[in-house]
Amino acid sequence: MENQNLDALTDRVADLIINAKRIVVFTGAGVSTESGIPDFRSPGGIWDRFDPNDFTYQKFISDPKSRRKQWQLLQEGSLTTEAKPNLAHYAIADLDRLGKLDCVITQNIDNLHQKAGVPDNKVFELHGNMQWIVCLSCGRRYPSDQIKARLDKGEEIPDCEACHGMLKPDVVLFGEPLPVKVLDEATSRSCSSDLFIVVGSTLVVYPAAYMPIYATNSGAKLVIINLSPTPMDEKATVLIRAKAGEITPRIIKRVKEKLAVN
Ligand code: NAD
Fold it and tell me: What is the set of domains in the chain, with CATH numbers?
């Protein structure tokens, strides 16, 4: 991947976008690192500081010690609505404005695609969204800011104000099934895409990582924009090893030049 000719690669992806009819953009934690949210697997990422085995759904439910750690991670990591979209999120939203986006399928829980302007009904969140905290007993939902304020004041394991039931972020923890409707829709959009663009994912978390496999098995072309290798690299029509926030705006600019729009 040394000596990539980024101009040539940008040009090729722009052509693929212009010629495609159904473009699915698939994103992972890497699309949000430039917004200041660490990913899991890069050096200095979350798994350098926490043990993933402590973060299962089963432990969350059964073990208060694990629950405390999970709230701590969530408070530090992604239980925030302060993060702002970066240039990659805006470039993906631009693709929609150009009429070239079928949907975004994301593993992220940070709400940044919507904040950048992709309509809600075009974002399929496979792992939920950190905007909400839900009571597992009575179903009451709390905005995460409200719970974060309680954590910041020193509460270690917040409970439901109404029934004192167990609260859980409305996100999919390890060992927890994915939301069926979202998974079904994401699968069908992947299968019917003709261009599938991966941005910032290691493609090792399943079932999310089946999406590019479904897409290529159904004949879609694959573009991968990621800083480190993925198991799908050999299948990529175009593979770009660069920062999402640097390369995606260049691609969109090239598309606009070719289409002669602003
Ligand atoms: P990951 O942490 O496994 O991998 C992220 C990938 O992005 C890495 O391969 C890394 O090389 C690449 N990357 C990092 N910064 C980049 C950049 N600026 N430009 C291009 N590539 C970059 O993430 P994953 O594959 O998405 O899977 C991890 C799981 O973690 C997901 O299930 C997701 O739910 C969760 N997660 C979400 C967030 C978030 O919502 N922002 C943050 C951390 C983890």
Answer: 1-37+85-127+178-262 (3.40.50.1220), 39-82+130-171 (3.30.1600.10)
